[in-house]
Amino acid sequence: MRWHNADLGYVSMIKLATEGHTGRRWYQDSKASIDAYAGRHGLDAGVVCDTLAILSPRVTVERGVRLAHAWLTTGRADKAMRARVKALEGYAHSGTFGGPKVNAFAAALRGDPHAIVIDAWMYRAARIDKPGVRAYRHVESMVQDAASVLGWPYRETQATIWQGARAYVGYASGYRPLSMDGF
Fold it and tell me: Per-residue pLDDT tens for 11-38?
């Protein structure tokens, strides 16, 4: 959004963040569920976070949880995209994985307050149709600007914008953190 040659994109991000304010604790509450799951299954919570992040592209949070549980307990995720399974196999071998969205999501789940996850919903919130490196950095900057104005950590601001964007287009606005409680 531009006005007199000034980029006001962060203003719309602030509006979405305030509308999605119930999502502010999303990462904290999700991490508590991950920690409890890891404890029940004798797993490292960081590995659970990384697995969830690796499986996150192009799936709902709920589906990602089911896929992660399958992988972590059986070493298989038959319904995951082939590229995601390959990434999990690489992670199991080397302990590394890549991609800005996946790395940021893992960091946010692990508790990094500076992590900013840019996914399809964040591009929609920023009204960007063509993702790419420059677009990613631009959306990241918009989130940082909004966080600065709101006085919130980056990851909390991103979570509220995500929640607000989904509510704006008609998805249920009820607060639902990532939950591994059923496993």
Answer: 889 999 999 999 999 999 999 999 999 9
Distance CA 138, CA 49 (A): 26
Hey, how many other C-beta atoms are within 10 angstroms of the C-beta on 74? Answer: 9
Instruction: Please tell me the distance from the alpha carbon of residue 42 to that of residue 38, in angstroms, as a whole number.
Output: 6
User: Where along the chain do its domains lie?
Assistant: 2-168
**Token pair listed for 25:** 């604790």
**pLDDT tens digits, 90-106:** 999 999 998 999 999 99
Half-sphere exposure of 126 (CA within 13 A, CB side): 26
**Whole-structure pTM value:** 0.91
CA angle 106/112/117 to nearest 5° reads 50
Collapsed DSSP state (helix, strand, coil) of residue 170: coil
| Residues in Cβ contact with 4 at an 8 Å cutoff, skipping those fewer than 6 apart | none
